[in-house]
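Example with several molecule types.
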Amino acid sequence: MSAVPSTGNAPALAPAGAGHHIAGEWADGHDDRTLAVEDPSTGSTVAHVARGDATDVGRAVAAATVAARRLRSTAPADRGRALRALAAEVDGAREELALLETRDTGKPLSLSRSEIAGCVAYLDYYAGAADKVQGETIPLGPGSLAYTVREPVGVTGHIVPWNAPLSMLCRSVAPALATGNAAVVKPAEQTPLTALRFAELVTAAGYPPGTVNVVTGLGAEAGHALAAHPGIGSLTFTGSVATGRAVLRAAAEHITPVVTELGGKSPQIVFADADLDDVAAQVVTGFTANTGQYCDAGSRLLVARPVQAELVERIVARAAALSIGPGIDDPDLGPLVSAAHRGRVQDYVDTGVAEGAVVVGTPGPLPPDGYFCAPTTFTDVTPDMRIAREEIFGPVLAVLPFDDEDGAVALADATDYGLGTGIHTRDVDRALRIAHRVDAGYVMINEYFGGGTAVPFGGTGLSGTGRERGLVALDSYLTLKTVVARIAPTS
Ligand code: NAD
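Resulting structure tokens for the full complex:
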């Protein structure tokens, strides 16, 4: 059995239960193996969770299969009511969840609070969508009737990353529940705590046992077992490209459809006519929010050559003024998620210097403990450099100048990713022209990180094939059945 103790001074650090959460209750792992969960702000262990494997995943899928049979026959309006009740539970626990998320990820408390508010928004939004899922009739002539029915896939799998743990979970679980499915969730091993608490809230909201099951553990063990399980009707994977490939390979065995939401190297394109002060603020938020650990972080600045120097100066000044500290103190920037990840980010910074790029500004001192990393801005970057092409997932900005629109689009498309693209200009014709030209799934004009729950989000290329948020996301959890009938003529 594995324990989830609370330690330290902050309240509500970990759920009170133990083990996985299967069939509506805490469930011991089938063996005693556990994983330590760290607070990245201090490096100290705050909890232990079960290290699940294929046996635990099998139990969770079995429980979800039972629940799915029941859920598929619920009336759409009842699905909406149930999700609204869950939204109310999450809303009622929002401060507890925010503290837990901050302790688990190191995220500034305000950011955790806004992500938990976003979770409530996902649940509310898809509650409203639950009774608006409709099929079509297809005209075949007087002797026939053809129509489509959109049915739940049954058991949905959700493999979740550590960068926005509960937010990513709710982004896919909410539409899965709205469409009458059950779920098995494998949170990231670094950040499993809010998922476990969420499972308790699902039970409290009155859902049947097995509706949402959480199996904690390592990706190569529990995650792989979920991707390879024959009982999964649809799998949503949010994470890195390398893991995405492994998940797709494992899912291929049973032809399980996979929603892939992967990484990015998103550009912010700035023209000379933009309001440079406003843009500087947006660029800094774009590459440092969540310490650069967002898939759509604006990690490349593509700037019109005449304003490059002035904009970089403003960006570096703003970045230097950001406070850095433990998430619980609510600074501008918390730590990176782990020592290993800080090592990866530092390696990229070293690589940038070795490739000939130039770090602008001098980083200030960092807190002594925890996995902190100063914002770093590179100029003299060329498109072939690794820091210009690869996802770093830390607060590192690569600046590249362009001379005209064609040059800006060519630079924007010079990576294998295609997630977000920011465009900053007062010229609306130019903004829309570029929006239509760039290879990206999500374009933001004059507002980086603009959008919200109702707006579809996803990428092209290595950023994945999925579309989440908005009504389009419902399709990932539905299968389309066509019914064709011959109508006998009246005799
Ligand atoms: P990761 O790929 O290391 O892990 C993601 C999840 O996959 C974790 O739960 C992990 O345990 C699991 N996993 C690892 N190996 C596995 C395997 N062999 N089989 C099955 N599951 C396995 O990603 P991460 O480091 O947690 O997250 C960061 C990445 O996620 C970044 O690349 C980021 O861009 C991406 N991301 C994308 C989006 C999006 O919407 N496109 C959103 C958030 C994060």
